[in-house]
Design a protein that fits this description.
This protein is an all-alpha fold and about 140 residues long. The protein is about 80% helix and about 0% strand. It has helices at about 1-10, 15-65, 85-140. α2 runs antiparallel to α3. The longest helix has about 55 residues, at about 85-140. It is rod-shaped and about 95 Å long. The protein starts with a helix and ends with a helix. About 0% of the residues are buried.
Length: about 140
């Protein structure tokens, strides 16, 4: 019936319950989009932290197995033993593979911005003007 009234220019009656329902729907959508944005950012940041920690750990292994520079002074009767070459090469390969892994996964993780966060922010930005229009309409009718 309302669509018929709109087409023929007849005045509409204010149905406050419909406006209230729409405003509540806008509020719910706004809250949901805010939660999606916050959760997606937290997920992205957590993955970046995980990748950074893994790369740092691999780098620390490489540093741990590397020869100690300047250790020939005052050895107190202890003779140092050099890290076997195979162990050192494994540590270097581990560090290189973690650096490559971090670079590859960072590309994927950063796609969260373009595929989830930005569209959700755009939707949230588009909801605001519609919400204001509905609120003004409800205020005018009242």
């Amino acid at each position: 019936m309302q669509s018929v009234q709109r087409r023929f220019g007849k005045p509409r009656t204010a149905d406050e319950s419909q406006v209230a329902v729409l405003l509540k729907d806008f509020d719910d959508a706004d809250k949901m989009l805010s939660r999606i944005i916050e959760a997606s950012k937290a997920w992205r940041d957590a993955w970046i932290d995980i990748l950074t920690a893994q790369q740092r750990l691999a780098y620390d292994f490489q540093e741990m197995y590397a020869p100690i520079v300047g250790s020939s002074d005052d050895t107190n009767g202890h003779e140092g033993k050099e890290t076997p070459r195979t162990t050192m090469m494994r540590a270097v390969k581990l560090q290189q593979s973690h650096a490559e892994l971090k670079n590859d996964l960072l590309e994927e993780v950063n796609m969260v911005d373009s595929r989830i966060i930005r569209p959700a922010m755009d939707a949230k930005d588009h909801i605001q003007p519609l919400k204001k229009v509905m609120k003004r309409r409800g205020d005018r009718k009242a």
